[in-house]
Fold these 2 entries.
Entry 1:
Amino acid sequence: MRGKAGRRIVVGLGNSNRGDDAAGRIVARLLRDAPPEGFEIIEKDGEAAALLAELDGAAAAYVIDACASGAAPGAVSRFDAAAGPLPSKTFALSSHGLGLTEAIELARALGQLPPICVVYAIEGGCFETGAPLSPLVAAAVVTVAERLRAEIAARVETEEARHA
Amino acid sequence: MAVKTIKVDYLARVEGEGALKVVIRDGVVASAELKIFEPPRFFEAFLRGRDFSEAPDIVARICGICPVAYQMSAVQAIENALGVDVGAPLRALRRLIYCGEWIESHTLHVYMLHAPDFLGYEGAVEMARDHADIVRRGLALKKAGNAIISLLGGREIHPINVRVGGFYRTPRRRELQPLAEELKWAREAALETVRWAARFDFPERERDYEFVALRHERDYPFYEGRIASSRGLDISADQFDAHFEEAQVEHSTALHACRKGGGAYLTGPLARYNLNFDRLSPLAKEAAREAGLGPVCANPYRSILVRAVEVLYACDEALRLIDAYEEPERPAVEAPPRAGVGYGATEAPRGLLYHRYRLEPDGTIADARIVPPTSQNQASIEEDLRRFIGGWLDLPEEDLRHRCEQTVRNHDPCISCATHFLRLELEHAR
């Protein structure tokens, strides 16, 4: 069950063939070209058990998923999942019996939630089969990739300063 | 006249999108409708005009939980049309990948979707807070099933290694050994699962179903066998259309299947178990007996226990198949195109899955028919609600609603894997 202990991961979730649902995966692909040092870039469809297996044993996890909370398409939310539960209504779009919210809460209940666990949610507008990213979401994935790089770099800097 | 309607807008812990409406008139359940409002998905139409070799990859997309079942029924039916026999070693590998699907699909349902009903939790997350070790065991057991599918299918979901005639690549014997080690642990975990589920408090409800499942001369059925029923039916897959029919009902976008001249029937774990108890491995039989199951079980609330026995059997059978594995000479046999009609029936985790294909001389699919288990079980699920809910009408509304949901979940309906909720209306007519 347990992933390799101490891994640091970025996980992009979604379905590549359902319009804006692909947002999380596209962010992962943008980061894959030049991954933050020591980070593994992963794409998943969002099924809870598979995501849980990735989270298990990880030291840090940054998860990106599309959401449908009623905000404007392309809106970006950031949640510190290690600090508390995700707002379940935000991710109710999950096309699976058990999705991101359940995976995070299962990990918390099982004592498997990484000490650093951050979720970026990108509000989708179009989830049609075969559709491309809508323009506002396509812009948002670039923004999120940049924010993630900056956040990870800042945290690494802080850690290095602490250990210096 | 007193009429009451109870509505549950979103019934969680089922696969797919639908609604349920139960009307209670003068203290009696007057009607129960499983309303599937998920849009039609047109897979049979997608297949028309495609080459037969594309079918396994197209039908795998029907379901993220049981893609192997769709692939197995498809290749069996198309090979039937082409007059191809893949031979025993490749059949054994197909049986092995099917073991993986039963383990992962059944374990997901037993631990994450159904057990919370018996232990009084809203869902798996709440259950995990009090029973972390048990949920960990379930997740690890499910992962053992996924490992089989990954190795033989190329990936866990929507496998890509299944083809008409066999596989694109077959594993070396040494590749199966790490899997065997994981499965030895899984078999023990599955045995513990049966013992755990045996302690649940099961409502005493039974009825006289017509059980329909495959029956094979030697094996507990995954991949092969004749279609049999508890009322004497014994036919080959090519006779399915003569004995079963599907009809549209106003409240559902899924067709309702019934026996021609017979009515509703039940397919799935209970049907398989009842028609094939003598084909289980000694370990699975013993575990079933120890859990208080006889050779026949007509109580759908005990289906969780039967699923647990089937997971144990699938682990046991997978280990047997790995032990006996001989590398096939070729990963696939030749399958030259020709005109014809072919039929296939295999046992998806949720029950009988029938496919029929008509091929043009060049191998183009002219026509396809797919009858999934949930469509076959819809009428029985509604009948269960009509028969069983009546005894609980004095319960508080929330508890009654829960009983309705549990009654649906007994059959692990896979309405589709696109969404996960089902809307329920319970109406008390006054």
Entry 2:
Amino acid sequence: MSQVSETVVEREIDTSHMQVSQTEVAIDIVGMHKWFGDFHVLRDINLRVMKGERIVIAGPSGSGKSTLIRCVNRLEEHQQGDVIVNDVELTSDLKRIDEVRRDVGMVFQHFNLFPHLSILQNLTLAPIWVRGIPKAEAEATAMHYLERVKIPEQAHKFPGQLSGGQQQRVAIARSLCMQPKIMLFDEPTSALDPEMVKEVLEVMISLAEEGMTMICVTHEMGFARQVANRVIFMDQGQIIEENEPEAFFSNPQHERTKLFLSQILH
Amino acid sequence: MAFVREDLYPAQPAPTQFTGPLAWMRRNLFATPTDAVLTIIGILFLIWIIPPLFGFIAPTFLGGNAVPAGGTVEQCRAEGAGACWAFIAARLNFFIYGFYPVEEYWRPNIVFGLGALLIIPLLWPRAPFKRTNAALFFIVYPVVCYYLLNGGVFGLRSVPTEQWGGLLVTLVLSLVGIICSIPIGILLALGRQSKLPIIKTLCVMFIELWRAVPLITVLFMASIMLPLFMPQGMSVDKLLRALVGVTLFASAYLAEVVRGGLQALPRGQYEAASSLGLSYWKSMGLVILPQALKHVIPGIVNTFIALFKDTSLVSIVGIFDLLNTVQASSSDVNWGSPTQAVSGYIFAAFVFWIFCFAMSRYSIFMERRLDTGHKG
């Protein structure tokens, strides 16, 4: 479990905007199953995420964490059950898929910036071509988010010229430029050097402070403690345990969870 | 015992035995006894081959034996005469225009001039008005060329394609082939990756069929078999048939080159584009293809160079391209001399080389220019 670390961002979390809605559902997953060929990767997943909730999904590799969040924006197709995102049910209807994707941002482990475009072009591509926003306006928004992730001076460079941490911050800004209602993080810090993990986590925390609905697949247990409302533990394609972070870490119920935590927390 | 460096060691020039021309020679030419022997053999070979070659090609005023432009056939027939450039100069118009009527030469000339005028700023990255330029070149220019060359409208005398020839035909064939095969090749490559089984199967069949057949067969089919199957009285121009054959042939090859580029892209690029909500065509056009095509520029240009040279195969079906005009002239008795045919072929080879070399250099230039430094 060498990839698990506990980088702690030492600051007080401003919770004033972090309200979880009691009535508005952001994501509703009901009885979902998924197979890769004959392999049953996700089994009977039931998960309701309220607007403003911050969820961390943990679990050993191969447990289906990434596949689960990739089903939320239909990068993976589920075969049984319902996935409803922002009141839109995901089916094979391409229009619905695009509608969901417009409002759901995703950050990948390997950043996946577009290497042939400058940072600014990376940020403005989708707003211009998907939302139809005029170029000048899109660029102004892009600069605003670049400032938020603290790298406005890199706007005219290419992704290959940036460090891993900077690239990941650009990737987050790129998603934010679409003004998403939900953000999905797929192991955003796993490919980064320890020194750079912190700068990415800072950005994620500040996003949480603004009340963004987030699902993070991450091994950053410090982050989970600091900002998550709920920690979900998965193993072998199933949700095994689900709890508030304090209870999850101090008093795990399931044997598998105990084993996992004993291996990663010293 | 702790050690702390207090000042940085200054940079120093490399020792002289590792720099300079002598060091270069020692490293590259005489590094080992085998290298030294090979170097000496190479130099002897050059001494053996270069002077006679130079003597054959260089005209008299440069110290060679070749007959320069303006010379007579008697000079070419003389003992020990080199290449007969006088023959090339005398038949140059035929090599460029074929059987195009002499008094109408201004029409192909305008086509050549206009083409150069449009294509140079198009290929030069810093030139302004790219969009207008591209529209003019890809849409207006072909139409103008067609009416100008073919005639029959606006009081222009009609010149059927049978009379076109020489470099004109070679350029028309290769330029149309190159420009039309790009979009067809890209669509075939995308189709081959499609999840829709019918589209995928059709594209695979098309590509495999055209790649499995020699170009000569395609041209023969187009010029001899096709008319047999067509209804009575209906005929399609011979040049047009060759043009379609060459284009489809090249696009099948191009499709495979582009597919290589598409497959080389990490899946993350497709996923990032989709997750931003870009539709299939937008993510292809804005994210995937710009990268994929950039990666396969060498392969694409390779296909174009092959296409350019393959246009010479149309001589088999009786179209007078550059090579065919040269070949036809080499039996011209007025210029009959021992070196007549060789001179013609050297000339043709040189013209082909100029165009292919230019394409090759331009592709290297574009590769460097489009390189944004690092892979994603």
